[in-house]
Amino acid sequence: MREFRDRVAVVTGAGSGMGRAFAQRFAEEGMRVVAADVQADALDRAVAELTADGHQVVGVRTDVSDPAAVRDLADRAVEAFGKVHVICNNAGVEGYLDGAIWEATDRDWTWTVGVNFWSVVYGVRTFLPLILSHGEGGHVVNTASMTAVTRPSNMYGITKHAVLALTETLYADLRTRGVPVGVTALCPGTIATNLFLGSRNRPSELRNETETPGAVAGRSKRELMHARLAEGMSPAEVAEHLVAAIRADRLYALTDADWDDRIRERAGNILDRANPVLDRANPVLDRVPPVARTNPPTVNGKAS
Ligand SMILES: NC(=O)c1ccc[n+]([C@@H]2O[C@H](COP(=O)([O-])OP(=O)(O)OC[C@H]3O[C@@H](n4cnc5c(N)ncnc54)[C@H](O)[C@@H]3O)[C@@H](O)[C@H]2O)c1
User: Fold this and answer.
1) What's the predicted TM-score (pTM) here?
2) Using CB atoms within 10 A as the burial measure, which of 11, 20, 195, 303 is most buried?
3) 3-state class of 28 per DSSP?
4) What are phi and psi of 279, to 5 degrees?
5) 34 in ligand 1 pocket by Cβ < 6 Å?
6) What is the pLDDT of residue 216?
7) Residue 13 alpha carbon to ligand 1 centre in Å
8) Per-domain residue ranges of the chain
9) CATH number given to 8-303
10) Could you give the CA distance from residue 70 to residue 129 in angstroms, rounded to a whole number?
11) Is 255 touching ligand 1 by the criterion CB < 6 Å?
12) Residue 99 gets which letter from DSSP?
């Protein structure tokens, strides 16, 4: 999709972080924007700020892990602007970080997989027919992660691998049918957002009744990771990458080259039939490379 003006974008997770930046960037391109988020105060603030800047923005409080709420979001988008051209399935949470994967409860899985993966299933199956219905083309953006293209090491990584697999499958299904709708798997690296404060929106019915032994450790991991993200790329910079990726019809949109060694390491291990070598001394930070930010963003391995 090369033309953005007057087109309609729906962005989930638009109350904070990258979603907020995408909503703004799309609006600055002249798009009409439907901003969705489960956190009402953050959503209201984002909509008020964008509206004050003269943009056409509508806010819809939406829990993306609920298929009926995603359906309602689509209905509200059509009601407001008549059509949808771009859907950004972007809302996500850090999810379960509180112990080994076998120690996670049903509630941990339901929350993490619901917000990070099922939301994308609901977003694709609800919005793609709307994009196809007007024949003007459009684009589906699913926010995956660098953890989707490197060795997963927690529940979050599992969900992001699943998002990438879904996005690649969608891409193939559209292309083999000659359908002119673009697809992007956005793979951000380390971005300065509130991702590791995601538990703020965990519904009470999906919180564990008793504190699991790992919950205290999980809290300190979240604090550590929140501080690490603060050193990362700005959401506005990611929004620039995203707009460029949509214009170029790029499936894999990696925000930087800081994770390339890890991408190669995993692919190399698989091809070599070799087991991964793990940093047992530092299992949390092992997941995130130091923020170099000197690396140029790359397009298919080449500097852009
Ligand atoms: N920050 C990073 O370093 C990073 C890296 C790779 C991928 N990502 C992904 O980027 C996306 C955006 O996250 P962010 O980093 O901007 O974090 P963020 O916490 O700043 O924003 C996420 C937004 O999603 C909303 N949200 C949470 N649960 C929801 C639900 N059930 N329904 C609707 N909205 C919900 C939150 O209220 C918040 O506004 C996520 O999918 C995340 O996994 C982030």
Assistant:
1) 0.94
2) 11
3) helix
4) -90, 95
5) no
6) 85
7) 6
8) 8-303
9) 3.40.50.720
10) 13
11) no
12) S
